[in-house]
Amino acid sequence: MTENDEEGTEYEYLEDIYVEDIGLTWVTSKWDIPVALSPEDAERHLPKGGPVEFWLELPETAVEDFDRSHACQLGQDVRRLSESTLPDETIRTVWLGATHGCFDPAGHGMDARTWLRRIEDAWLAAVRRSHPAFVPSPPRPVTDEGLRQAVLQVIRPVANDLTRAVTIPKYGSPLPGLVPSLEQVVTQACADLGYRLFLRAMKAYFVEIDKNSRDAFIALGKRFGYPEFLVGNNLNHQE
After folding, report:
1. Among candidate residues 73, 67, 41, 66, the one with its CA nearest the CA of residue 54
2. Of the candidates 149, 133, 220, which has an alpha carbon nearest to the alpha carbon of residue 183?
3. pLDDT tens across 201-238, in order?
4. pTM (predicted TM-score)
5. What are the residue boundaries of the structural domains of the chain, listed by start?
6. Dihedral (C-alpha) 61, 62, 66, 71: value to the nearest 10 degrees?
7. What percent of the chain stands above pLDDT 70?
8. Inter-residue contact 151 to 198 (CB < 8 Å)
9. d(C-alpha 69, C-alpha 20), whole Å
10. Cβ neighbours of residue 192 under 8 Å, at least 6 residues apart?
């Protein structure tokens, strides 16, 4: 993986056409798995430790199932948030937005940074089983001002629709302040991760968009060098 503040972030994966998300936002994309299970199936298929263990198994799955660049992106994303100056409540809000509010770390006695450290610990343990001497690189957030403004520009036309969607969610509790929190991630932490968290929230809450927004989303994804279907997969796009 290479990062370039002028052109965005380039991701080089084998068989990119099958990659529907990367890093931390790949983890958050799995929010609907436990939601879709009946209590009986949840008892049968989910880890015995409950929802915390379900989420902490996902970093191990990322390490096992994806190439090294994809796996390393998870550690990058976690550190881009945990080592940022963002308030803890902002991190919690964007996590909840990306997961449709289905898992709140606060409900399990953890603030957002503590939860991210748990994810990072699970990821590192999985990586070091194959590479014991592995040392994660420092976070390299995308801070280019042009890219930050480009992300904010695609958020603004759909901000009211996303805000309405999280006011009466299908799952979880209402989530006030999601859009400002996403914008904070973009401007104060990382434009790349902020954009992917925004896309995850749009998909989690199934917010309808028109062709203009869809085209703008995809064009920006190309600037970041995302895998082909990362942006468009599961967007609620209407012609």
Report:
1. 41
2. 149
3. 999 999 999 999 999 999 999 999 998 899 999 999 87
4. 0.87
5. 2-237
6. -150
7. 81
8. yes
9. 15
10. 8, 9, 141, 142, 147, 224
